[in-house]
Structures are given as C-alpha cells and as structure tokens.
Specification:
The chain is mainly α and 484 residues long. Helix content is 74%, strand content 3%. It has 20 helices and 6 strands. The strands form 3 sheets. A two-stranded antiparallel ribbon has the order 1-2. Strands 3-4 form a two-stranded antiparallel sheet. A hairpin with a 5-residue loop joins strand 1 and strand 2. The chain is globular and about 60 Å long.
Length: 484
C-alpha cells in the first residue's frame, strides 16, 4: 500500500511540475503596491501570436464577421461519408461549448474575480484569427480517411508536412508525435473533468451518489462512441438544442436583473485592470485565470478544433477557417458570457466561500429556485456529454497518425477515455483540471512551432478566397473559382 501511495505521489509531483512549467510565472513584472504580474509560457505564446494573426488577417474577426455568418448558413455539396463545414463547426462547438463554458468560467471567476471575464473576452477576440489560421491549414493538409470515410487531419498532419518535406521519406515527425500524444493526454484529462463535474452536479441537484451517475454517463457514452459514425449525427441534434436552451434561460435572467447590469460591467472592467486587485496583490491572478480558462474554453491555438475542421468537405479551405473563427465567438463572447452573467448577477454574499459546481448551482438557485439547480445539472450533462463525444472525434486523427489505420487502436483509445470518464466521477477536482491544462498547454506549444511558420499559406488562402468570393467586402457570385 505504501508503494502505491509513493507511486501516486510521484505522479502527482510530475503533474504539478509540468503544470508549473506551462502555467507558472515564467516572467514576473513588478506592479505598484508590491504586487506583480506573472506571465506564463502559454500566455507569452498565445497573446503575441493572437496579435500577429489578427494583424496578418487585417482584423478578420471584425472585418469578416458578416461573412462568417453567411458561410455558416450556406450549403456546400458534401461527398458520401464526409461531413459538411457546418457539421465540423458543430463538432468543435460541442467541445468548446462544454466544460470550459460552465466549470471553466466558474473556476476563472472563483480564482481571479470578475475581471477574469474581460481577459476571457480578449483571448477570444485574439483567438479568432488564430483559429482561422489553424483550421485553414488543417483543410490544406487533410487526407482521406480509409476507416471512417471522408477526411481526417489536424495539426499532427500539417506539422508532419512542415518538418518532413519529402513525402514518404519518414513515417513520423517528432514534433507531430509529441502533439498527437499531448492531445490524447489532454482529452483523457478532459474526460475526467466531465465525469467529476457531472457527478457533483447530480449529487447536488438530485442527491444521486456519484457512482450511479458516472455509471449511467459511461454507459450512454459507450453506446455512441463505439459505433462507427454516430458521433456527428448525435451532435447535430444535441449542440443546437443545448446552446439555445442555455442562452434563452440566461437571457431571461439578464432581463430579470437588468437594473444590475451597469454595476456588473463596472465590476468586470475595474477588476480586469486590477484597480482593486493591485492593492491586494492579486492582479496577476485576474489575468492568468481569465486567459487560462479562455484558452481552455475556446481552444484557439491549442490545435483541438482543427482535428474537426480537417474532416469537413468544403469548397474552399478558408471557408472552414471562417467557420471555426465564428466558433470561438459563439463559445466565449456568447456562451461564456452567459455563465459569467449568471454568477455576477448574484449578490456576493450568496456565493461567498464557494467554488466549482457548488457556486454555479447556488447562483442558479438564487435566480430560479430549485428549477435552476435542476436545469444547470441537466444542461451540464448535455454540455459534458457532447464534449466527450467531440473529443473522441478529435482523437481519431491523432490515433491514426500514431498507430496507423486500424480499428484496434481506435477502439482501445475509446475504451481508455471511457475508463477516464468513470475515474473522473470519483477524482479530486483540482487534479483533473491540472491534467487537462497540461495536455492543452503541451498541444499549444507543439502546434505553434509549425503554425506560425505556415501562417503565410493560411493568409494566401484567405486572400484567394476574398478575391474569388468577395468584391470590396461583398459576395460576388460571378467570380467563383476552384479553391487552392
């Protein structure tokens, strides 16, 4: 027993060390009042790269937002067994509009205060251009999928092509392998977060023991993920329903508490720039928690969403890039803001000393009574369920890159994820978040190694799309040509 405890403590120590390397204070900047601003490796990578892509795309999130909307309702011809660009958006939205939007926002505000919401918004605006670049590259380097049909790809594939110029010269690229392994670690971590959060929510709402909730969740998930092509069909139904329901309920809460909105926004902006936190020495926590949870939520730059973007059968690579940029907006500016408003429109004394799902459910109880607690438990189940299905769709391409095209490796990873889902239902809250943060952090580092040098190809695709499909910002249907 002592040997097991020693091994467990050793694993936890490794996880903590890796977490600190990625998210710890790599650079510290002194601030007035004795406080300091700590900048982690991920922040030093993501914020400058987000600014870079925003400038290179000429402020794409603002300039081409109407085109993003238009592309989302446009119908493309889709070949048999492939998925459409909109379906790829549903898959990526299933994972974005999931745990990060509920538990992630709760964690950010719990640790960094209301100001963390502002930094989540900023990460989304910068991240939209990054999401465009990585999704477009995923389309440019996609391959046919002999197992599932349609296409597959993602960062592991464009990283491979970047480092190995000659086709068939080598089976693997070291950086691509590291990305693929990091992705699989990340998604196992997220599986644990899902199990943990759902079991906690149902215990609070219905007094159901975590073991029973987790068993049911695993059983239902297994029925879906172990079937060949059930994933996209389920997400086509679940994602729009859950997102609309959550948005409508939040809109009702906002209207009901409209008189409090000015003070809420004042609190967000005051705390974002540390006017209260600098004195208390917590300004760095505001930025770090907002940026960290923003990345975990919108995934821009991490390389997750491109695994879905590559699967789309779409007429131009840049169109999928625009759809994924829209996905970041939907995730953070809309859905994350909903969660933030639910919590910040509650008097602070109601949720004092709470964290995690207890905080969110207490907020919903304040707004809607017992119905609110039940609603948030059910919506969390839908968010979590869709996230789990979505990350296993992502995993297809990474598993194929590492182990080749065979059903054995695909099925074994799905079984591993189901085990992690079960373990997460009984795991410690902080541990499972750290494991997910490590995975997404490593993915981001390896993804950016190739993403920035390959950026000119994504920009070229955007310029080609605008010259073919758009004239002075307006759609020109008479100038359509074949994509790159």
């Amino acid at each position: 027993m002592n040997l097991l405890e020693t091994a467990g403590n050793g694993i936890l120590a490794i996880i903590r060390a890796a977490y600190f390397l990625l998210w710890g204070d790599l650079v510290t900047i002194p601030l007035p009042g004795g406080s300091f601003l700590g900048l982690s490796l991920l922040i030093l990578i993501l914020i400058p790269s987000g600014i870079y892509f925003t400038l290179r795309t000429h402020f794409l999130p603002f300039r081409l937002f109407p085109e993003m909307i238009r592309v989302s309702i446009e119908k493309d011809h889709v070949s048999q067994d492939a998925i459409s660009g909109l379906q790829a958006l549903f898959v990526s939205t299933a994972t974005r509009v999931g745990m990060g939007n509920l538990v992630g926002v709760v964690a950010a505000i719990s640790a960094g205060g209301a100001g963390a919401v502002f930094w989540m918004w900023l990460m989304a605006l910068l991240g939209s251009s990054t999401a465009f670049a990585e999704a477009t590259l995923a389309q440019l380097y996609k391959e046919e999928d002999p197992l599932y049909g349609g296409y597959r790809g993602g960062p592991a594939y464009y990283i491979h092509h970047f480092f190995i110029k000659k086709e068939n010269s080598r089976r693997y690229s070291i950086i691509a392998v590291l990305f693929a392994v990091s992705g699989l670690i990340c998604w196992c971590g997220i599986s644990q977060v899902i199990g943990n959060s759902v079991s906690s929510a149902f215990e609070n709402a219905f007094q159901i023991p975590p073991l029973y909730t987790t068993l049911i969740l695993v059983a239902v998930a297994a029925v879906i993920v172990l079937r060949k092509n059930a994933t996209v069909k389920v997400l086509d139904l679940v994602v729009p329903v859950m997102a609309v329901c959550y948005f409508v309920i939040t809109l009702f809460i906002i209207v009901k508490n409209a008189a409090l909105l000015p003070s809420v926004f004042q609190r967000i902006f005051l705390e974002a720039f540390g006017l209260r936190q600098v004195v208390a020495g917590g300004f760095g926590a505001v930025i770090m928690n907002g940026a960290k949870r923003g990345l975990f939520s919108n995934e821009a730059g991490s390389g997750s969403a491109p695994c879905a973007a590559a699967a789309a059968d779409i007429s131009h690579p840049a169109k999928e890039g625009l759809l994924q940029a829209l996905g970041v907006f939907i995730d953070t500016i809309v859905i994350c803001s909903c969660s933030a408003m639910i919590m910040l429109l509650v008097p602070e004394h109601v949720t004092a000393g709470m964290e995690g799902m207890d905080l969110l459910q207490a907020a919903m109880h304040h707004h809607l009574g017992s119905f609110g607690v039940i609603f948030i438990a059910v919506i969390l189940w839908l968010f979590s369920f869709s996230t789990f299905i979505g990350i296993l769709f992502y995993a297809r391409s990474n598993v194929a890159y590492l182990f080749g095209d065979n059903w054995l490796s695909q099925t074994l990873y799905k079984l591993l994820a189901l085990v992690m889902l079960f373990v997460g239902g009984l795991a410690a809250y902080t541990f499972v978040w750290d494991l997910g943060d490590i995975g997404v952090g490593l993915m981001t580092v390896f993804n950016m190694i190739a993403l920035i040098p390959l950026a000119p190809q994504a920009i070229k695709s955007l310029n080609d799309y605008e010259s073919q499909f758009m004239g002075r910002g307006k759609l020109d249907k008479n100038r359509r040509q074949a994509p790159l």
